[in-house]
Amino acid sequence: MAETRKLLPTVGPLLADHLIRLSPDDRRLRFGGLFMPDDVLRRYAEAIDWAHAWQVGWFEAGAMRGLVQLSLPRRDSEAKAPWMKQGTAEFGVSVEPPWRRRGVATKLIRHAVAVARNREVRDLYMVCQPENEPMRRLARKVGLGLTYAAGEVVGHVALASPDSETAEAERALEAAAANGRGAVAWPRAAS
Ligand SMILES: CC(C)(COP(=O)(O)OP(=O)(O)OC[C@H]1O[C@@H](n2cnc3c(N)ncnc32)[C@H](O)[C@@H]1OP(=O)(O)O)[C@@H](O)C(=O)NCCC(=O)NCCS
């Protein structure tokens, strides 16, 4: 049976395995046009700053088949992109081909929205390649407005404050994580 879980920092290898099952083209679409060979994806997974990144995985048939990654800027970030300002976050999503067009990414993005709202994120962004029609359609479907800038498509949605539903949604994801992998302490967001 399929299950959605917030990922623990201990499951970096599972995350890398999922990304490595994507084709070279899908990796390029997921990572801003970059070529991402297997060893680079392994190092990427090992280097995740879990204090500023939250990951929700969708598991079926014994492996993680879908993943949404939510990144918040570090407090000392001086980057100028809109999603690097305080009070913002950016997400990226991926689903393995056999599980596509079943609403998995839609569901994962809704979880990312709940996690972002629980961290007082006011502006949520997504950046994709202009040729990524599936992602552009998906973004519009989940309520993002799209603009084109500097050869990229930027999706944006303003988020509401957290409420009991977003808190409960995240608790359920954490309970699933604890049941799936054993209770491991969550890293606290850097203040
Ligand atoms: C983009 C991606 C995440 C979509 O995952 P998914 O689980 O298939 O998406 P969903 O089933 O939730 O689709 C929701 C909507 O998105 C749109 N969509 C998704 N895939 C589409 C496709 N191949 N063609 C056209 N529209 C598509 C549709 O509007 C769809 O709704 P519908 O099925 O009712 O028509 C997946 O194709 C993927 O992993 N691509 C490679 C990585 C990538 O590009 N990531 C995005 C960069 S951030």
Number of strands: 7
Q: Largest beta sheet: what is the strand line-up? A: 1-2-3-4-5-7-6
Percent of residues in helical segments? Answer: 25-40%
Bound molecules: coenzyme A
Tell me what the structure shows:
The chain has helices at 12-20, 24-30, 38-46, 104-118, 133-141, 164-181; strands at 3-6, 53-60, 63-71, 88-95, 123-128, 145-149, 152-158. The chain has 191 residues and is of the alpha+beta class. It has one domain (3-181): Aminopeptidase, CATH 3.40.630. The protein has a seven-stranded mixed sheet, sandwiched between helices. The chain is globular and about 40 Å long. The termini are far apart. Coenzyme A (COA) binds at residues 26, 29-30, 92-95, 100-106, 126, 128, 132-135, 137-138, 141. Coenzyme A binds at residues 26, 29-30, 92-95, 100-106, 126, 128, 132-135, 137-138, 141.
Features:
191 residues, alpha+beta, Aminopeptidase, 7-stranded mixed beta sheet, 6 helices, 35% helix, globular, binds coenzyme A
What's the arrangement of secondary structure elements?
Layout (H helix, E strand, L loop, with lengths): L2 E4 L5 H9 L3 H7 L7 H9 L6 E8 L2 E9 L16 E8 L8 H15 L4 E6 L4 H9 L3 E5 L2 E7 L5 H18 L10
Parallel strand pairs: 4-5
Antiparallel strand pairs: 1-2, 2-3, 3-4, 5-7, 6-7
Helix pairs in contact: 1-3, 4-6
Bound molecules: coenzyme A.
Please outline what is shown here.
It is built from 6 helices and 7 strands; from the N terminus they run E-H-H-H-E-E-E-H-E-H-E-E-H.
